[in-house]
Specification:
This is RNA polymerase sigma factor SigM. Belongs to the sigma-70 factor family. ECF subfamily. Keywords: Sigma factor, Transcription, Transcription regulation. InterPro entries: RNA_pol_sigma-70-like (IPR039425), RNA_pol_sigma-70_dom (IPR014284), RNA_pol_sigma70_r2 (IPR007627), RNA_pol_sigma70_r4_t2 (IPR013249), RNA_pol_sigma_r2 (IPR013325), RNA_pol_sigma_r3/r4-like (IPR013324), WH-like_DNA-bd_sf (IPR036388). GO terms for molecular function: DNA binding; sigma factor activity. By secondary structure, the chain is mainly alpha-helical. It folds into 2 domains: about 5-90, Rna Polymerase Sigma Factor, Chain: A (Orthogonal Bundle), CATH 1.10.1740.10; about 105-170, Winged helix-like DNA-binding domain superfamily/Winged helix DNA-binding domain (Arc Repressor Mutant, subunit A), CATH 1.10.10.10. Helices cover about 70% and strands about 0% of the residues. The protein is built from 8 helices and no strands. The chain has helices spanning about 5-15, 20-35, 45-60, 70-90, 100-120, 125-135, 140-145, 150-170. Helix 2 (about 20-35) packs across helix 4 and helix 3 (about 45-60) crosses helix 4. About 25% of the residues are buried. The mean pLDDT is about 85.
Length: about 180
């Protein structure tokens, strides 16, 4: 049996004022939140992560089931991502300088297109791609985060890769 406290125990301690317990919750879940926050875009992901944990800390008392801390936190992160998207719709786009090399510009465009397509994937596939490929998590960690077996996780990744390959071909992006 592990000496590590469960998330449920850490939530109870954090509710009682134990800041270190909330720090442990942060350490355990920050990668999960960053994966969800990546849907806000490269520039906004860190802000989304910070805002998510700030809201979680402030509203920890509203969590009904302390054992469900991680899913609750993901829900907060999704809400913050949606809010960021709404805000960005009303901000002017930054100007790009004319000195950008054509090859660099094409590579940037292709990478942005791929990230846009990843964001269109069904949620489980999107999270699997983000955990495994973009955050370079092991298959075991990815499976644990998705609550799937290794083979089930590989199947999800295969579906996502197939879908992305079709979409990239339709967009004319070279692989």
């Amino acid at each position: 049996m592990s000496d590590q406290p469960t998330n449920e125990e850490l939530v109870r301690r954090a509710r009682g004022g134990d800041i270190a317990a909330f720090g442990s919750l942060y350490d355990r879940t920050v990668r999960l939140v960053r994966s969800v926050a990546a849907d806000a875009g490269r520039d906004a992901a860190e802000d989304v992560t910070h805002e998510t944990f700030l809201r979680a800390f402030r509203t920890l008392g509203s969590l009904r089931d302390p054992a469900r801390f991680a899913p609750w936190l993901v829900g907060i992160a999704r809400l913050v991502v949606l809010e960021q998207r709404r805000v960005r719709r009303f901000e002017p786009l930054p100007e790009r300088g004319p000195q950008t090399a054509e090859a660099d510009a094409q590579a940037d465009d292709d990478a942005e297109e791929l990230l846009r397509l990843v964001a269109r994937l069904p949620e489980e596939e999107r999270l699997a791609v983000r955990f495994f490929f973009l955050n370079q998590r092991s298959i075991e960690e990815t499976a644990r985060l998705l609550n799937r077996s290794r083979s089930g996780t590989y199947a999800v990744l295969q579906r996502a890769k197939g879908r992305l390959a079709r979409w990239l071909e339709e967009c004319g992006v070279s692989r």
